[in-house]
What we know:
Elements: H1 2-49, H2 64-79, H3 84-95, H4 98-105, H5 111-124, H6 130-135, H7 142-155, H8 157-170, H9 176-183, H10 188-201, H11 204-212, H12 223-232, H13 237-250, H14 256-261, H15 268-281, H16 287-292, H17 299-311, H18 317-326, H19 330-365
Amino acid sequence: MLELWYVTALSIACMILLLLVGILLFRMSRHAKQRRRQRVTALWQPLLERCHEASLDGLPSLTPPEHIAFLYLWNEQNEATSGATTAQLNRMARHVGSDRVAKSLLRSRLLRRRILALVTLGRLRDQSAWQEISALLIHSNSFLAFQAAQALLLIDATAAIPLLVPLIGRRTDWSPLKIASMLSTAGPDLASEAIVQAARQGDPVVASRLIRHLPTTRSARGLPALRQFLQERPPADDMLAACLFAFGEFREQTDLQIIRDHLSHPAWYVRVQAAAALGKVGTQDDEARLIALFNDEQWWVRYRAGEALASLPSMTEDKLERMQETLPTPEAQEILAPVLAKFRARQAQRSIHGAAERTALAPTSQ
């Protein structure tokens, strides 16, 4: 038993010693990286900031570890600049071999280095890495695949869209908001069309979420394809509700009849979106349609119909008050009470802003 105790104590002491050595080595490695990063920053930060003046032939050399620190610094500088400065930064990076280093990092075992490589190659617009980057689109790591998609869009958005559209509709691990943000780098028109194409070809759940982010592109280029999709076959209720939401956000009179046709849809959340959209696109002729929704069995439909009624361009405070008095049921009158209060608050706020603007412009006019 005594020998067993000695062996156990010795084993524990060895484990503690190994742990201390590991911590020491880790701290030494961390300090070495910090010193290397500080050294690279002190040397290269002024050169990157004055990239227009710096001579490419006189640039200092970089060791492989220093080059990784340089890539982080270069990407930070590239993100903060645009136009001719970005082009000069790209020429500087290619001159010191950053494109070759980034390609080698694509095959690294460390995730952070592979992501660094993708970001760098995307900003360098490196066509030679197209195949390697494309292969990462189906990677099991969703973040790595997403960064690969962003890199392809930066390299050649027109060529990347056909690759990404089928993938966007299938990858449920990609956030639709991030997808919309990613596609915006390709330009609003191209992003709008790509979102609609991906929604038409992809999973219905992902498709409805994608369509809801279509207004973030602020481009109506995708709307004709969306209208055609609704005419070809009846979509799922979630998809239909998302389409009505998009139509309301874009406020085009072309979609007015489509919105009116779905005010009596069997799914209550579709009726909610139709009523909300009608408040943004509708005319004075739609007042009666919205008032009819006050008798809907779902409270949300009745409430959105009241909000939409107050949002119509033809609506005034007097008209809302008369409507509230003439509605046949107490439930319908209750719907208009908060809506009327909000309407009065908006009108008062507009009056205050108008008075403030007139006061601000008064000295100028004099």
